[in-house]
Amino acid sequence: MKAIFITSVIFLFFSNGFVLAQDQPVGPTLIKTGTYHGLSQPLRDLPVMSQQEQEAMWKKNKENPNNEGLQFREYPFSATALPKGPDPVWQKTATFSDETRTTQLNYNGSQIGSNPPDPCGDVGPNHYFHAYNAAYVIYDKAGNILAGPTDLNLIFGNVAGSNCNSGDPIILYDEQADRWVVIEFSLCNANDYVLVAVSQTSDPTGAFYQYSFDTDEVPDYEKVGVWRDGYYMATNTSGTGHDIYVMERSVMLAGGASPDLVRFDNPWRPISIDGFMCVPPVDNDGTFAPSGSPGLFIAFNDDAIGGGSDQIWIYELLVNWVYPANSSFTRSQMINVAAFNSNFGLTWDNIAQPNTSQELDAVPAVIMNAPQYRNFGTYQTIVCCHTVDVDNTDHAGIRWYELRRTNGNWSIRQQGTYAPDAHSRWMASIRLNNFNEIGLGYSISSSTVYPGIRYCGQDADEYALASGVMNVAETTIVTGAYSQTGSRRWGDYSSLNVDPKDDQSFWYTNMHVLSDNATKQTVIASFRLSPLVIYVDKTAAAGGDGTAAHPFNNVTEAVNHATNETIISIKANTYDEPPVLFDIKGMVKATNGSAIIK
């Protein structure tokens, strides 16, 4: 395994007690070739864990002391920080759209004793791949188990570090390649590793190519995004700054033997309040960014922690796989945003629960999993979110942003803070679908509401206004019934994804606590913010799988063919050229290329 260490010279200057860096690109500090270990067994053939084995895994992870030293926070500039009053873009009330929300599926995943449980997953055309500390389950899209629950490390076979099963899983569906990617860190040996598995085919229950990368640092809280030229990764390595990575996607998709990894030390990391900081990569949904576009990372600066102004920071990584040493990384933009407050006090005691003095960690220091990029051709978007205190009373809300770029730089198109009542909302995940609808999933809790799971959204009409308002009414996925008393760690992250089959539906996973006040139950739900869009085109060839347009004699036939799901049984007018938009009475409403079931 080759490894090249590179020394970069970074010019620093001091202002108002914090460090800034001239925003000139820096080169990599490590270039290393990963190790290919072969093909895994098909995941559907790996052993399913017994209840006893699952409980042993819970006990191991419950006793894991990782990051306990990061619970003490500092806000050195709180006296001068803004806002001095309530959050200036606080959405204090729920507004209601005329659109009909549809929760399609809502089912239990797995029970977990780990602290934190790290629930995550992704959705493909025919599967939902769910993971948590430290196992996986693969479902069909009706919620039936096809593989697992199985120890996550078994995917990696005899890969160096696979004996640990340390956790922090990430699951990605690589839409443009129609493949699956599984990531886990490994911390129990002399060397620390990132383990990566890439599916051999589009079937996640089949075999995976197995890789390991020796990172030379603890790759804690790793977050990974898909980009055209790489799998981009960031880690929580505040002490060293060895935190920005890219792995050679094309080699791994082909099962190649020698994928490179390029690492950078980020000289523009936001100052950490407790030693915890991750600057996550942006995950590309739908059409790829234009060829040659640098991979993107994103973070925020809170003026109470780092001084200056409340800002979103954008970073660019331009990788050169022919000459990796010529790769570069820079902070490309610092964008002023509406003032916010991420100060929940000096410890992890942040989110209130009923009938206990035990509070939960708000994880307020980072952009939540996963910031999303979309390329709409004439413009590009990023949506992301983080947790804030809306009124300086540990009342958590979700600050969210949509950034847009048409030419040149990114700018804030809309922003808001969702906290429509006295309860706290946090541990959020946000995505934009192809129909200009934004979905937002999160945890909810307060002194009177047990920790539960809900979602809301912004419909296409509100999106067109760029109002910063979530106008699709909040919907409950799980009504909590118990408080967690054994640990302050909650989730660490959740995961919202857009279904690539229709590019409209959202799939979400999060967790709540059970009657012993300790065991967590993961939940998987799918929902739409508006009626399903079905493409009807009588000139297209019939017999496909619904991902392209097909000819149908009526809307019911289209629904059944495209999704194997009967939504509503109606007859519509016979289609004509061009494709038409139907309403429930079968009347032609528009000729925009789609049929919508109202």
Features:
mainly beta; 598 residues; six-stranded mixed β-sheet; 5 helices; six-stranded antiparallel β-sheet; disordered C terminus
Structure overview:
With 598 residues, the chain is mostly beta strands. It has two domains: 526 residues, no CATH class; 68 residues, no CATH class. Helices cover 6% and strands 38% of the residues. It contains five helices and 38 strands. The strands form ten sheets. A six-stranded antiparallel beta sheet has the order 1-4-19-18-17-16. A six-stranded mixed beta sheet has the order 6-27-26-25-24-20, with no helix packed on it. Strand 33 and strand 34 form a beta hairpin. The protein starts with a strand and ends with a strand. 51% of the residues are buried.
- Poorly predicted ranges: 7-22, 535-598
Shape: globular
Distance between the termini: 58 Å
| Total of helices | 5
Largest sheet, if any?
6 strands, antiparallel
Q: Label the structural class.
A: mainly beta
Q: What is the radius of gyration computed over CA atoms, rounded to a whole number of angstroms?
A: 23 Å
**Helix content class:** under 10%
Count of discrete domains: 2
Order of strands side by side in the largest beta sheet? 1-4-19-18-17-16
How would you state the average pLDDT, rounded?
A: 85
Query: Which strand-content bin applies to the residues?
Result: 35-45%
Beta strands, count:
38
Quick synopsis:
The chain is mainly β and 598 residues long. It is built from 5 helices and 38 strands.
